[in-house]
Amino acid sequence: QVQLVESGGGLVQVGGSLGLSCTVSGGVYEMSAMGWYRQTPGDARELVATVTSGGNTNFATSVKGRFTISRDNAKNTVHLQMNGLKPEDTAVYYCYAELDAGRTVFTYWGKGTLVTVSS
Hints:
Blueprint: E1 3-8, E2 10-13, E3 18-25, E4 33-39, E5 46-52, E6 57-59, E7 67-72, E8 77-82, E9 91-100, E10 105-109, E11 113-118
Parallel strand pairs: 2-11
Antiparallel strand pairs: 1-3, 3-8, 4-5, 4-9, 5-6, 7-8, 9-10, 9-11
């Protein structure tokens, strides 16, 4: 059974940096895409950043220039480096992975890790 194991997160001051990592366990397939979404209470889950197995990246406008994303395809891990953090970055961050199996696309989610940016 595929599981996404997240690490990182926590409390950081405004302007600080934090890294989130996620590893896919229980699967032998290379994920087509991996990334991070975030959610605050009462709001919909929103994309933060994703990266494909080919290295193509996509970022939310609000994090461009501050966040970077990288992945290790062989290890099925993805890392989100967050710099210049702002209070509005406070959210629960969810790791995301997608496996394109041709006719079917499988999506997987981590349990979430809380990031709190204090002013």
